[in-house]
Amino acid sequence: MNPIGLILFGLIAGGGWLWLRRQPPQERTRAGLKLALLLILLGLLFLAITGRLHWLGALVALLLPLVQRLLPLLMRVLPWIHRHTQSRRRSRSQSGGTSTVRSRMIAMTLEHDSGVMDGEILEGTLKGHNLSRLSKEEFLQLLSECRASDIDSTRLLETYLDKRFGAQWRVDDPGATNSDEQVSTTSSNMTREEALAILGLEPEADRAAIIEAHRRLIQRNHPDRGGSTWLASRINDAKTLLLKD
User: Fold this and answer.
1) Average of pLDDT values for 15-31?
2) Contacts of 217 (CB under 8 A, 6+ apart)
3) 142 and 86 part of one domain
4) Could you tell me if 164 and 49 lie in one domain?
5) Boundaries of each J domain copy (predicted)?
6) pLDDT tens-digit readout, 68-117
7) At what angle do helices 55-94 and 28-49 cross, to 10 degrees?
8) Cα–Cα distance measured from residue 238 to residue 141, given in angstroms and rounded to the nearest whole number
9) How confident is the model at residue 184, as a pLDDT?
10) Which of 45-54, 113-122, 159-168, 235-244 is the least confident region?
11) How many Cα atoms sit within 13 Å of 213 on the Cβ side?
């Protein structure tokens, strides 16, 4: 290619790049494909004019009808690929986040990567304390208060105790045999905000992100793997609610 041709091609490519940068983010993939196709066609046209195309011209002539047929299909597929890639990227970025499960008396957090649980007491004589700093006697006191007033708080605290101490804590639990009778069996309906917090998602999360977050959490907290039946139920409920929207 002679110097003039190189300069012209460079100017066109530079102008195309500036045009591409001004496109909305969601349109850049489609615009980039169009720009690349235009540059290829201009390059082939230059080779044809200067007599340097030779056998490549015949090959392009054969392939051009096929490209024309495939291009509309590719244009339809590219946005789906872009959305899927973005969803996977969001899911990976959320893998280092936390989930939050709230009841009337406890706000529990679960770190996705480490599986570490902690919580803040929202009501009762130990209000404001973190679960990770309570003594054995304080745990039993809090559990008694939860059983007297709120079933979700009871199940949430029992989940934490199982996670931290295993089944051994139940040996010293004076209310273990009749906890179900000491609390109401009704539970408040889950809101969309609560469901998002449980799965550790942002409000704009799409279907793929919801399914991925649920899969990751349920693997760590499934009862068959030593997790809590109650917490697994909340995770499943959160997924069901969000997928209905």
Assistant:
1) 75
2) 99, 110, 112, 198, 199, 200, 235
3) no
4) no
5) 194-245
6) 777 777 777 767 776 666 666 555 544 457 888 888 999 998 887 777 88
7) 160
8) 30
9) 40
10) 45-54
11) 34
In the structure encoding, which two tokens stand for residue 69, read together?
A: 């047929």
144-179 per-residue burial string, b: 16 or more CB within 10 A, e: under 16: bbbbebbbbbbbbbbbbbbbeeeeebeeeeeeeeeb
- With tokens 């495939």, the residue in question is 70
Smallest Cα–Cα separation from 173: which of 184, 183, 162, 163? 162
CATH number at residue 171: 1.10.287.110
Beta partners for 117?
Answer: 110
Q: Which among 28, 29, 120, 33 is positioned nearest to 70, based on CA atoms?
A: 33
Burial class (CB in 10 A: 0-12, 13-18, 19+), 239: buried
Q: How confident is the model at residue 20 (pLDDT cuts 50, 70, 90)?
A: confident
Q: Which residue, 94, 124, 150, sits at the end of a domain?
A: 94
Q: Which domain holds residue 176?
A: 98-244
Residues 157 and 63 in one domain: no
CB 228, CB 159: distance < 8 Å: yes
Task: Give yes or no for a contact between 186 and 151, defined as CB atoms under 8 angstroms apart.
Answer: yes
Beta bridge partners of 110: 99, 117
Tokens linked to 135? 């003594």
Same domain? 107 vs 130: yes
Number of domains in the chain: 2
Does the pTM surpass 0.70? The reply is: no
pLDDT at residue number 53: 60
